[in-house]
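Q: Sequence in, structure out?
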Amino acid sequence: MDRTVGFFVLALLLTCYPSSSETYDTLSEGSSLSVEKSNDVLISANGIFSAGFYQVGNNTFCFAIWFTKSSGATTVWMANRDQPVNGRGSKLSLLRNGNLILTDAGKIMVWMINTVSTSSARLQLLNTGNLVLYAWEKTVIWQSFDSPTDTLLPHQILTKDTSLISSRSQSNYSSGFYKLFFDSDNVIRLLFNGTEVSSIYWPDPSLVTWDAGRSTYNNSRIAVFDSLGYYRASDDLAFRSADFGAGPQRRLALDFDGNLRMYSLEETRGTWSVSWQAISQPCQIHGICGPNSLCSYIPAYGRGCSCMPGFKIVNSTDWSYGCAPETDIACNQTEVGFFPLPHVQLYGYDYGHYPNYTYESCENLCLQLCKCKAFLLNFSDGLYDCYPKTLLLNGFSSPNYPGTMYLKLPKASLFPRYDPLEEFTMNCSGNTRYIQLDRTYRKGHENGPLKFLLWFAYVLGVLEGVTVLLVWLFLFRVHHDPVSTMQGYILVANGFKRFSYAELKKATRGFTQEIGRGGGGVVYKGVLLDRRVAAIKRLKEANQGEAEFLAEVSTIGRLNHMNLIETWGYCIEGKHRLLVYEYMEHGSLAQKLSSNTLDWEKRFQIALGTARGLAYLHEECLEWVLHCDVKPQNILLDSDYQPKVADFGMSKLRNRGGLDNSSFSRIRGTRGYMAPEWVFNLPITSKVDVYSYGIVVLEMVTGKSPTAIPDTDAQGETEQRGLIKWVRDRKNGIGARGSWIEGILDPVMQGGCDMRQLEILISVALECVEEDRDSRPTMSQIVEKLVRPEERPELEGYLTLS
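A: Exactly. Output:
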């Protein structure tokens, strides 16, 4: 009887004491949010952000803030990332004394904001994503913006007292190895902070501060970016997102791979696209592959790690542990030799720098040093430089690197079978969406027989599932071509879906609705099984068509930008080669120019968006990409007339720094838009795309095709010179400002143009079509000239430059 009364009194107390939030964005004093109630979530008034318990492992949760409208609930802040709480009994409570506490399983306090007995407190999630604890209406006691984890939001200030710490991995949200912070010299840097070693890797540590575009002469140590995508720091670091301007939600995140990236949200799909990143070559990030290993970037596979010859992987699920030697390396000079690794660099941990050394003298130096693990021989300025290495860290392989690393190995291991692809990918069989964290709780009384029955049923179910899987794999192997299957694995890993030819034939109703045609193939409109409208490009069945298919797939599989066409999948069956794109409602720029439906505002935004897309290809993706066929037919327009650069069938991947020596087996592009370099067999660089872009802009402004005005002085070298000469003659022939512009303007736009914007656009286009490629601007410089934003007034008060 006493126990019944006790339970009744406890239930009455719980009913009388408020336990959950009563409003959408505010937690009042004396209330709490429970991990067991899925609707115990704070939602900002604008509906963009949510705050509540976020699952980070099996039965483990963190209290977090995330974007509500993004797919996968992208987190931007966590209170207890390194000490998750149990999925039962855990709460975030705002006590009546004003203290904010997070308890694990109702017993252990893992996080707390102590307000020193402040009354009239409330916790509110603002529209900015800032979680603020108030007292006395508007007095801020604490805010999440002052303690970021791995993400900054617009107007969230990074100071000398705050930093960003990456997560441990894509599925482990605990603190990782990478840090963004203001160093003691007032410069904002990226640091690899491993368990045994640490090193700065951004800005490039081989550069002095001013050569890296930074300044140490400031005393504020403040960095911030606004809602338009403009970022500025007190050390003179400044950049703009590729989609600069009002519109998308943005975030700046230090990702688990050590790269700092700005993302923009496309709300209709809930997906994020990279609009800026700090490091374009991922293998230059320190610690990415661990000790005694090499980072390589191979287009068909992406970035990956491999052990050096004579070493073996330590943990097949985590490359940060690196590799360990297979055998001990003796100090006896007669028992060791050197294995050459061309184009390999190991950053740091040099015993010294020995200029003008021969191979023999550098080898003898390393043999005499017991702690020398390898030596680098680098040829520069007509001399060889010798760098003995005491540790094998931060290794990467790049075909453009001129040096050779000589690895010290036992003579018995001097001729290993070394295949950089053998260990390129790690074993991810255990890398599930949620990881199992080490959490220990006191267990109650267990029912032994019931537990045995449950385990028996579980094992029986697993055996049945394995049997079904083996049968499925056998049938799959029988019915699929091994070669195309392997290609499918590679591409599916990059996010594509592999379609069957029959499926695409049905989607296009037998390839009947043609919406485009080019040298590489024909494009049809189709409706997929999930009711998405798609553009399906059927490439020619000749060898050229297959080559273009493989080039296009390998290129666009790694590109992600709002001004680049999104590809959903592919088909490769026998001689059939097809690509599946998102469908663009307004077709191509060429179609709209001929229909005279584009006003000035649309044309200017198309010119700007196209420049942003090409700037991303040239300067921001993992490798430089030359499109090689920029023309109105390859610029598609979505429902809002936003441009998307398409058709990478003629694209050319080039490692950064190697463009000046690039060679092409044949001329690429379309007559009328090709740069002089193609005709005169000059080195091909990104400036060929700049030239083609300039022709497209002139065509947009004048409404005239590049071949419509013949050049009587040209002898067939470049057909478009007639249009260029015609525009230049009118610019230089009439003195009154503005009248020459009206003389070349497309009649459709007469009277409806911003003359200042128009003059800038024409000036940029004429710079793009200079005969000398070195006189042409880069695509990023073109974006800068077209945007020309004024100084952001909202930054005043945030930045104090000395």
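The mean pLDDT is 79.
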